[in-house]
Design a protein that fits this description.
about 250 residues, alpha/beta, five-stranded parallel sheet, five-stranded antiparallel sheet, 15 strands
Length: about 250
Amino acid sequence: MKAILVDDEPRSNENLRILLEDHCPKVKVIAECTDPRESIQKINALKPDLLFLDVEMPHMNGFAVLNEVRSSIRNVIFTTAHGKYAIQALREHALDFLLKPVDPEELVRAIDRIKEFTSPDLLLQSLERIEKLEQQFRKHHSNHVAIQTAEGYILVNHEEIIRMEAESNYTHVFCQKKKYTVAKLLGYYEEQLTSGFIRVHSSHLVNLQHIKTYQRGDGGYVVMSDGVAVEVSRSRKKELMRVLLGEE
């Protein structure tokens, strides 16, 4: 069985490949992709028997990738950092999910389930099923964001996040009780946090609920609930004013 791994985290792809080599020797990894857009070309060209597909990725999520390649694959297993309570609900739609970090026993069971299907394209019979799956996923995770730590992943409620700050290829996530530093670009989180958050500077994404005051200036700055003053760039001031005050 030929497989392609798609995950924006190279480490996740590497860990999954090692698990497959150790526990599922009949599954041969023929490609690993970290850019979801580039993965579309590779999947359509190689037409794998099995696709391991991360759900939350920058630029395109896993559902968007699947919509582009559904005619080129036979089976798909989504990988996600989100909680197990959602995975069971999503399995009701006949598509499999693995929680990251991937458990070897769960991986083996997922592979075994794929072998039980009599039709090679049973998992991808209609776009409607995929759309329902995406709706279900967003229903369960609309109020959470996954934060990667040294031990794995944790789910953080949106309302707990005060602000995010970019530093090179890292993002500092300032929450009400704790700070996290994640090896992801700020734009990755900006795409996920489309409601209730606003980019006020190239280096700052803030939670509107945690803005206490706005101080005028060239671009000005906002004072957050943790007492930190965050600079507002001139180019983003107008949008901030529109959101805060309803100005055009």
